[in-house]
Design brief:
The protein has 2 helices and 15 strands. The longest helix is centred in the N-terminal third of the chain and has 6 residues. The mean pLDDT is 96.
Length: 185
């Protein structure tokens, strides 16, 4: 297992070591020990799965407010997604900057997103399954988010009219959301 740095130091792409032969392939999908060696020491407590039937489905941008904020370790087990992390930590040198990566069933990469970041993804194929670990339990009263197309953030999703949930259609702009993260705190 190795990590690849992104333009935001705390966000990492995790690449597992895949062993393949004529029968197929095998890899460790999670190793607390190996992630710790890469500097990821979060104690993951919940696994979440999502399924999206149609290409062009966008989920996000979501976060949980402190004290229930979540670090996430995301992978795409079927299909292909564009996965995005946005730094929403006030005072951070990368505040409101975003990074993205393509995750798919072939590359088997993971995207590590620490606390203090919003997360979203766009399906690039039909029939997409996403699995992610979270280091805090889901808490509806701490749930937060903002518009995927907020001009202040400027994420380049490569799509102008995605398939959205009602929640995401009605999400506020970042300047109106209840993000309560502070860099270094």
């Amino acid at each position: 297992m190795k990590s690849i740095d992104t333009a935001i130091a705390e966000v990492k792409i995790i690449v597992p070591e895949v062993f393949g032969d004529a029968r197929g392939w095998f890899y460790e999908s999670y190793s607390k020990k190996k992630l710790s060696q890469l500097g990821i020491t979060d104690e993951f407590v919940q696994d979440n799965r999502s399924y999206s039937a149609k290409k062009g489905t966008l989920r996000g941008l979501h976060f949980q407010c402190a004290p229930m904020s979540q670090a996430k370790l995301i992978c795409c087990t079927k299909g292909k997604i564009l996965d995005v992390a946005v730094d929403i930590r006030k005072g951070s040198p990368t505040f409101l900057k975003w990074v993205s990566t393509v995750l798919d069933e072939d590359n088997k990469h993971y995207f590590y997103i620490p606390k203090g970041f919003a997360h979203g993804f766009l399906t690039l194929t039909d029939n997409v399954e996403v699995l992610y670990k979270a280091d805090e339990y889901y808490s509806p009263e701490h749930d937060g988010g903002f518009r995927f197309d907020d001009a202040e953030i400027g994420v380049d999703w490569g799509i102008s009219d995605p398939i959205l949930s009602e929640k995401d259609k009605n999400a506020p702009l970042f300047s109106e959301c209840r993000a309560n993260f502070t860099y270094g705190g």
